[in-house]
Amino acid sequence: MHSSMRREAVSARITTGDHTATGSAIRVEAVTKVYRSDSGPVAALDRIDLDIAEGEFVSLLGPSGCGKSTLLHIVAGLTEATSGRVSIAGSPARADRTDVSIMLQRPVLFPWKNVLENVMLPAKLQGSTASEAKDAAMHFLELTGLGDFATKQVWELSGGMKQRVSLARALATDPPVLLMDEPFSALDEFTRERLNVELARLHDEHGRTTLFVTHNITEAVFLSDRIVTMRPRPGGVVDVIDIALPRPRTASQATSAAAIELAAEVRGSIAAYL
């Protein structure tokens, strides 16, 4: 298929996917990103179109260099697109929005603050009273299984526990939109699986719009409503795959026949780029 025809076909699937969430929460329109280098311009993203419905969990998946993190950072307002536009709930993406939280690959916690103080910080910066911030922080520490660790110091925590603190902090302002950039990739497989189950449970209970970057096919299938597969050099959309697993998601679904079949479909989508 001609490249422009392929782009139009994939774009149509992105914007009209069969999902139950309603209303557009994130819209990416013809986003291109070009970096300047000593050897000339480097195209990181090539005319990306993406429409994510309110309450939908969408994963960006592809090999290194396909622009997944760059696209997420543009949506977060941390990186400026060379051309195209991004809107969240109908207004331009920018870094100072209070309705969006971002969780990064490695936990960024303040070592001089304890667990509770780290989780309270975003709400306090947004103007909540100390009492309101504490109540919200404790609520999400309880939800992430860390209620008994509120007074612990950061250095006392395992890697998985630090990521759970980061997750609680990202949720503590109750954002409608959650952006996650490979948040569990540095963890061991067992901890990663536990946190995936926890994240799926939180999504099923609260229904936040989530854009999730990962290299892990099994993880993407288990968590997502749709998976956007991407190719490198320049980064572009290969396909959009609907994940028709029932919700709420349970740990057993990760190894179900349906999940294995979907994982094979996802892998086949990007096989040529691996």
TrEMBL record:
This is Nitrate/sulfonate/bicarbonate ABC transporter ATP-binding protein. SMART domains: AAA. GO terms for molecular function: ATP binding; ATP hydrolysis activity. Residues 26-257 form the ABC transporter domain. It comes from the Bacteria. Keywords: ATP-binding, Nucleotide-binding, Transport. SUPFAM superfamilies: P-loop containing nucleoside triphosphate hydrolases. It comes from Mycolicibacterium diernhoferi. Pfam families: ABC_tran (PF00005). InterPro entries: AAA+_ATPase, ABC_transporter-like_ATP-bd, ABC_transporter-like_CS, ABC_transporter_ATP-bind, P-loop_NTPase.
